[in-house]
Amino acid sequence: MKDRIDGLIARCRGEIATCTCVQSLTECKVKFLGKNGELTAILRGMKDLSPEDKPIIGSLVNKARDELANELTIAEQSLKQAELNSKLNNEKVDITWVKNTDKSGTLHPLTKIQNLIIDSFVPMGFEVLEGPEIETEYYNFEALNVPADHPARDMQDTFYITQNILLRTHTSPNQVRTMEAKKPPIKMLCPGRTYRADYDASHSPVFHQIEGLVIDENLTLCDLMGTLECVARKLFSADTKVRFRPSYFPFTEPSVEVDVSCCKCGGVGCSVCKGTGWVEILGAGMVHPYVLENCGIDSNKYTGFAFGLGVERMAMIKYGITDIRLFFENDKRFLKQFNK
Ligand code: PHE
């Protein structure tokens, strides 16, 4: 019996020595000292021993249990310490690390310009509305006096979803939506994304416009000119010159295109204005009587003006940017420059 106990002690010590984690040590403890362990089995067999042997073997078993339990505890403590050390090593904090101070987001230059434009109209009493980017052919063209055979409907310009549903090519459908929903007087501004199948340094398939619409009694082209002149001076500078050229849009009559004196060269001629001293900023005109009537507004009583302004174009002029694609590449080196 003594040999059996000695053998057990030797095997248990051998296993303790090979344990590399707390888990395997626990398994070893169960195997030798647990309820169904080997030492408990020896204790159970003691009932068959002679009365003289019982106390001798009993004390050997107790001694073996105490010693092994003690050795297991010591081994467990040193394994736990080793595990903690390796965890601390792996989670070491580098106190020389420099915090990235460039984490907070900033407004995109287009958002900034859009806000600037809106802010210069709002004090004049304009309210800001929004409309759908996926439009029907009726709101995008038909109601705006753009008949089915008009070149603006060319498949190459417009992203059609079905024959009647498309991605809006301008924000002008919101003129119609607003006139349908509200009674004059109306003074609205509608910013939003617009889409055309075009892609080069000055055209992007997605771009942004801000539509403006004013409807009231007795409005004339002078009101349009005064309003836009006032805003152009706020956006660029007080001495900016504004020029109105006759133009054509199916939904305005008369129609104009509006130029401002180049803010880069002051009108002398440079790369931004292509040597002309002027840059075009928007299209505008008096709302066509057909459009008013399409929206249920009496064209004998009311007149109005509308304008559509390209946000990218305004930003390019203001900051001297020569490639529209820069706005959509999200290169931080580009974007950062507008957040001084
Ligand atoms: N919708 C026109 C365009 O995208 C601009 C415009 C708006 C012209 C309102 C006149 C009146 O080119």
Write structural notes for this entry:
- The chain is built from twelve helices and nine strands.
- The chain has helices spanning 2-18, 22-33, 38-44, 53-90, 109-121, 137-140, 173-181, 221-235, 289-294, 311-319, 326-329, 332-335; strands at 127-128, 134-136, 165-167, 186-195, 206-216, 242-249, 252-261, 278-287, 303-310.
- A hairpin with a 2-residue loop joins strand 6 (242-249) and strand 7.
- The radius of gyration is 42 Å and the shape is elongated.
- It folds into two domains: 2-90; 109-338, BirA Bifunctional Protein, domain 2, CATH 3.30.930.10.
- The model has no long low-confidence stretch (mean pLDDT 91).
- It is α+β, with helices and mostly antiparallel strands.
- It starts with a helix and ends in a 5-residue tail after the last helix.
- The strands form two sheets. It has a seven-stranded mixed beta sheet with strand order 1-4-5-9-8-7-6, with helices on both faces. The chain has a two-stranded antiparallel sheet with strand order 2-3.
- The site of phenylalanine has 10 residues, from strand 8 and strand 9.
